Amino acid sequence: MLRLTKEIYFDMVGHCLSGLPDEACGLLVGSYGGDEATHVFLTKNAAASAMVYEIDPTEMLLVDRQAQALGSDIMGVFHSHTHTDAYPSPTDVAQALDPGWHYVLVSLRDTHPVVRSYLITDGVVTEEPVDVPGLGEPEAGEPEAGEPEGSL
Question: Domain range for residue 52?
Fold first, then answer.
């Protein structure tokens, strides 16, 4: 299971939406091999493509140094699929070289973004749940779904 805060989730999805028409990408930071992302680093798609993504090695090194300064490690990567499902493409699987990472896909194919996470080891793709505590719950003072505003 991958755990994300609401802030990380919204930063990730917002970055993917703002990257359109190209794929967008970034790195998740936390404990290597762990389940909880504590930080997200939004990166540039060096490929500038709607079909593939690439994180510049220099930017990757900078994020790795920032993660180390936080006492953490890079523990995953995310990128968007602009016109397809949130499932790793053959290119994604071929590029997934670290079995300790979480590989997160954000599909922008439909009206609402779909976020899914995978573990990829030796070409074998295994989906894992994504837990975002508080996502979908009304904020304090907001009416719950189906409850009219101003009701007593």
Answer: 2-131
